[in-house]
Amino acid sequence: MPKTAIKAVITIAVLLAAVAAAAGIIMSRPTPEQLTVSESTSAIRAMTVEKESLRLSIRSEGTVTPKTQTDLIPEVKGRVTWISSNLVVGGYFQKGDLLVTIDAADYEARSGLAQAQLLRAEAELEHKRFEYKRLQTLIQDNLVSQSNLENAARAHKIAEANVIESKINLGQAKRDLARTKITAPFEGMVRSEAIDIGQFVQQGAPIASIYASDAVEIRLPIVNAQMAYLSAASLRRGELDPKTAPMIRLTARYAGKSFVWQGQLARTEGEIDAQSRMITAVARVNQNGQSPDVPPLQVGTFVAAEIQGQYLDSIVRLPRAALRPNNQVLIIDVDNRLRFRDVSVLRLENDFVLIDDGLESGEVVNLSPIQTVVDGMRVSLTLEPTADRG
Hints:
- There is one protein chain.
- By secondary structure, the chain is of the alpha+beta class.
- The chain contains 3 helices and 21 strands.
- The strands form 4 sheets. It has a 6-stranded antiparallel beta barrel with strand order 2-11-14-13-12-15.
């Protein structure tokens, strides 16, 4: 056998032996222990959903203004002879109080002249009536002509007209005389005044600005969308019925203390502001209907208002932390796994979110701010108390 053939046989035998040895080693190695990978869990805070019935409210702010305000205007001209000590800025007066007197001498004279004119007209009427009746008797005996009777009838009518005119003149003179005394048309306060004793005032020229103190109003701007929270009856035009108008709670600080006043929605103004796109609601506060320990609501006070809105059922109130982007929340299912849920957000209210659709009572909602969420991830949870309804 040639040497080359012998070398080839030996090489093949060695290779086969090496392969057999390697196979034996692999077959005889120990089997590795199987490792089970445990699923990680995240600890979260959660709360159980409870539907409730609640009344919505609308918050706004505004400045107190008088409900009734008017200018004090003389209806006659003349020189001022007396001014009430209450006719000063901030002065208080009752309805019917005398505020200003104007020199009445000329008006007394005119009233006297008008009275005299009436007496003359009545005397003339009495004479013409007698003359007319006398001629009516004489014409039956053909003692006077028809033209004489007609002249007497005309004179009688003219005398009647003179009496009517004289009575009107006397009434006007008496009214002008009474107008020399300017009285308060209502109980209220003085906002401004521009008059002094001895000053000659003109008819129709304002001498003071006054306002009633029995009630005040506050104009409250409201976002157009929030008007949906009011009842339909509150949205109608014109003055609202006090029996059904929403109540309004007003708060402000006065003399270093916080006070609360109760009012009502009086009306909503009929226009939407072109700049802010807001609607103005007008609150009215009856000063005499407040608690005895609450001071009168001063004109010019800046107040915060909470308007009573609709009463709704089946609303879920959750902390804002429960709401995620795109109006979603995370529900924990029976296997303690997170699931995304779309919800309908009614409104955001302070630290809470109100949801009117998408959740049922008894479901559990996540409250923890988890950054990375995978649908179906397992969690361990700690239940928090139900959201405070206060």
